[in-house]
Amino acid sequence: MLSKRKDKYIDIWEIDFTSHRARSEHTHQRDIEKEKKIELEITKLLRNNFYFKYIELESHIPRIGRTGLESALIGTLVQCPLCKASDNWLGKNSSKPQIREGKLWLIQHLKAKPITEQDKETIQIALRYASLNVF
Fold it and tell me: Most buried among 44, 49, 89, 122, using CB within 10 Å?
């Protein structure tokens, strides 16, 4: 949204404040009230325009990280020749080329291998289990 508006605050927004160094060097540049307004706008957009689905996986199944199912699903979508971003996708305004020129709003796991047959079986089992339970 900031990029689309050509708002210079994006330079601050994109700083990773999880490191002590970044916090000590850049905290004085933050406008917390502006960030709260942006977050509210993003929340409203997500709540009004998006639907989210999930599947429950057994606790022993790796979900996230380089070897998790999340990574494989990302790899599958990135390599999908039929999958593409819509013409009005906000990601096309991203300052990050991997997002702007890609299909997903992330930069992690873009080179991951796609799901395996075993992954497919895991997903099918989880979906069968989910259909037996009402959430």
Answer: 122
Residue with tokens 């999908």: 80
pTM: 0.70
Q: Is 25 helix (H, G, I), strand (E, B) or coil?
A: helix
Read off the pLDDT of residues 50-66 as tens digits, 9 standing for 90 and up.
888 788 887 777 888 88
For residues 54 and 38, give the distance between their C-alpha atoms in angstroms, rounded to a whole number: 26
Which pair of structure tokens corresponds to residue 21?
């160094």
Distance CA 98, CA 109 (A): 11
Mean pLDDT of the chain: 89
**Cα 124 to Cα 61, 68, 72, 121, 135, distances in angstroms:** 13, 16, 15, 5, 18
